[in-house]
Design goal:
- The protein has 17 helices and 17 strands.
- It is globular, with a radius of gyration of 23 Å.
- The relative contact order is 0.16.
- Residues 1-21 have low confidence and may be disordered.
- The chain has helices at residues 2-15, 97-100, 105-120, 134-142, 172-175, 200-209, 234-247, 258-266, 290-301, 311-317, 328-331, 336-342, 351-355, 360-383, 406-418, 422-428, 431-436, and strands spanning 25-32, 42-49, 52-58, 69-72, 77-80, 82-87, 123-128, 148-151, 157-158, 179-180, 214-218, 250-254, 271-273, 305-307, 454-457, 471-476, 479-482.
- The protein starts with a helix and ends in a 9-residue tail after the last strand.
- It is an alpha/beta fold.
- Helices cover 34% and strands 16% of the residues.
- Strands 1, 2, 3, 4, 5, 15, 16 and 17 form an 8-stranded mixed sheet that branches. Strands 11-12-13-14 form a 4-stranded parallel sheet. Strands 6-7-8 form a 3-stranded parallel sheet, with helices on one face.
- Residues 1-21 form the signal peptide.
């Protein structure tokens, strides 16, 4: 009798027949919207088994497999879960690094809610581009409900360059353990740090050992009080490109200017993190200069991944928008205690950094120049069907204007206003991200064998950008959750 029961159990595990599988889910009566088949938006059904998609049926509804839990999609739209390929999970919006890492109860509440806030807005996968504390990644993954998370490990930063320049000289080298020496850009480095342990090969090896899927670099001369910073030489960048290729990883470069993107494109970066806010000597031109068009054509031809991250500047503008903190959308993604703190004098500590002594009314017009240039670049790339990869840069700085999940939704709204079609936005946040970051065997579309990361929406994302705020149900690896239960103010 025991042998017969054991044989039956083994057969069930091997074949996973519907009658025996406890975690079968049959989603029916939905319109399937998958980026690889945008020409076939039709009614269908999807079977989830063990956290994976095992059947995709298009056409008239079929009977549910025996033993499966049936989910009636009510004629809504089923899409792949969204991917945000530019987040920073260690930071608490509105708090300094020290505040966020202090163990403050508001920060702890934020970290518990953060994974749910990404899911609330449909982001079932996030990629952290610059890990400063692997403990944050571990804690994120231990939360009962959380998106899939991937990362680039510790960023490869040039000694005394961006972003380690924001820390004092006596702390920056310990805080940024993956810094690089570049003989072409000599800067002062404490004697305790040996050049042999900070080579490109050693830096990429650290990323690989930590499980990174990508390598992050920067070309940034600085801004505000941190200007004229050293930047990586072409020769050093070529070393990074070669080592990243050898490791089979994706090379992401922070580049937000014409100069920086020219450098990164010439060096064959896979992804440009940020849009082109700064055109240098061409800033004053009303139209898109031919020199910039020529560079953008290369970006299109090389299929370089492009992350406009338009919400970065809107995140700063939040400090001078009178009604921002009263927006009901914030209550869905931020614990009440932290949201209330934002309005206190202590919670406004970052505002002087944004306004630089100017009146609120004078700050917003000053941001229009970079936004105008960004929109022009996005519109041109959209017209050439560039390889947009969706990233929100959440949070981009210590601002409370870039909140998890919501920041991504607002990025989509800005991209659409700038000229990206709804299909381009949808593909950028699904299949383009998956392919560019080499995750497409697992994510990015509704196909058999892929992870069951899915969204049920009331509205099609190909009809209106507001569809991304119409999510009803979220599945992560087959685990189903009602959107309303993910909200920070859910009772």
């Amino acid at each position: 009798m025991k042998r017969t029961l054991l044989s039956a159990c083994l057969a069930t595990l091997m074949l996973c027949k519907p009658a025996f599988c406890a975690d079968l889910t049959w989603i029916s009566n939905v319109k399937l919207v998958s980026p690889e088949k945008l020409d076939r938006i039709e009614t269908g059904s999807v079977l989830i088994d063990g956290g994976r998609i095992t059947r995709v049926e298009r056409g008239p509804a079929k009977a549910a497999p025996s033993g499966a839990k049936v989910v009636d999609g009510k004629g809504y739209y089923l899409t792949p879960g969204l991917i945000d390929s530019h987040v920073h999970l260690h930071a608490v919006p509105g708090m300094s690094m020290e505040q966020g890492a202090s163990g403050d109860s508001m920060a702890q509440n934020y970290f518990r809610q953060m994974p749910r806030s990404f899911l609330y807005h449909g982001f079932t996968t996030v990629i952290d581009l610059a890990v400063s504390d692997y403990g944050v990644i571990d804690r994120f993954r231990k939360e009962p409900l959380h998106p899939d998370v991937f990362h680039c490990g510790e960023a490869l930063v040039l000694a005394n360059g961006y972003p380690m320049s924001f820390m004092t000289p006596d702390t920056r080298f310990k805080s940024f353990g993956n810094f690089l020496f570049d003989p072409a850009m000599p800067t002062a480095v404490p004697a305790e740090f040996a050049p042999a342990t900070h080579t490109v090969a050693a830096g990429v090896a650290r990323v690989v050992k930590a499980g990174g899927i990508c390598v992050k670099t920067h070309f940034e001369r600085g801004f505000g009080a941190n200007r004229n910073l050293p930047v990586m030489s072409s020769a050093k960048f070529a070393e990074v490109r070669a080592a990243t290729t050898q490791a089979g990883k994706v090379l992401v470069t922070h580049a937000n200017s014409f100069e920086a993107q020219s450098f990164a494109v010439a060096g064959k970066a896979d992804v440009l993190a940020h849009g082109m806010w700064h055109w240098g000597a061409l800033n004053g031109q009303a139209g898109l200069p031919n020199e910039i068009k020529a560079l953008l054509d290369k970006i299109v031809d090389q299929r370089t991944g492009y992350q406009p991250t338009m919400q970065v500047l809107y995140g700063l503008r939040a400090y001078v928008e009178s009604g921002y903190l009263n927006d009901p959308a914030l209550r869905k993604v931020v614990p009440a205690s932290l949201l209330a703190w934002f309005s206190t004098p202590e919670g406004q500590w970052f505002k002087p950094e944004v306004t630089e002594g100017e009146e609120d009314a004078a700050v917003m017009p000053g941001m229009e120049g970079p936004l105008r240039r960004q929109r022009a670049v996005v519109a041109y790339l959209a017209g050439r069907d560039a390889n947009f990869v969706f990233g929100s840069d959440t949070p981009s700085s210590p601002t409370y204007g870039n909140l998890p999940g919501l920041n991504g939704y607002r990025e989509m709204q800005q991209l659409h206003a700038a000229g990206m079609s709804l299909a381009q936005i949808f593909k950028a946040a699904t299949i383009n991200n998956a392919r560019t970051f080499k995750l497409d065997a697992e994510l990015g579309s509704i196909e058999v064998g892929k992870a069951a990361n899915l969204l049920l929406m009331k509205t099609s994302p190909l009809e209106d950008v507001s569809a991304y705020d119409s999510v009803v149900t979220v599945w992560v690896r087959g685990q189903q959750t009602a959107r309303e239960a993910l909200a920070a103010d859910y009772k």
